[in-house]
Amino acid sequence: MMHLEANNMIHRDLAARNILVGDGGIVKLADFGLARIVDEAVYVASGGGKLPIRWAAPEAYTTGEFTIKSDVWSFGIVLYEIFTHGETPYSGMTNSQVSQLITKQDYRMPKPSDPDCIDAVYEIMTMCWKKEPKDRPTFEFLYHFFTDFPVSSETSYREAE
């Protein structure tokens, strides 16, 4: 995503279902059917195409405006999918309820219960879900955050043997 950001591309359908993980942990982004190369910072969609509401930034479905910051919102949703082990975002809600809660009541999903989703990771999710696109982090920031983030494959507590 940092590469797309640097090359003025907007994916517009960033979701776990479009991220492929191969041998050696190589990650590839798929489904560029909605992607756009933009000359301007904002792409305004015309026409009544279907939009993945649960992954889309609120400005995308309220005004039709897409930016790289719309993809940042979606990245926050992807993090949620990862830490809920594939749970559907806004589970139990209709698309209409999701859009109303986000736009009218500033609702954001709660922190996943997975113990690996520490407060710092949830804080990144909520940064991605800032109401104003300009307040969301860049993919360069996100890349460095997760690259520099200490990762442990073991839990911090184990029963004595």
Automatic annotation (TrEMBL):
One of its GO terms (biological process) is cell surface receptor protein tyrosine kinase signaling pathway. It comes from the Eukaryota. Pfam families: PK_Tyr_Ser-Thr (PF07714). One of its GO terms (cellular component) is endomembrane system. The keyword Membrane applies. GO terms for molecular function: ATP binding; transmembrane receptor protein tyrosine kinase activity. It is found in: Endomembrane system. It catalyses: L-tyrosyl-[protein] + ATP = O-phospho-L-tyrosyl-[protein] + ADP + H(+). SUPFAM superfamilies: Protein kinase-like (PK-like) (SSF56112). Keywords: ATP-binding, Kinase, Membrane, Nucleotide-binding, Transferase, Tyrosine-protein kinase. Residues 1-146 form the Protein kinase domain. This is Tyrosine-protein kinase SRK3. It comes from Araneus ventricosus. The gene is SRK3_1.
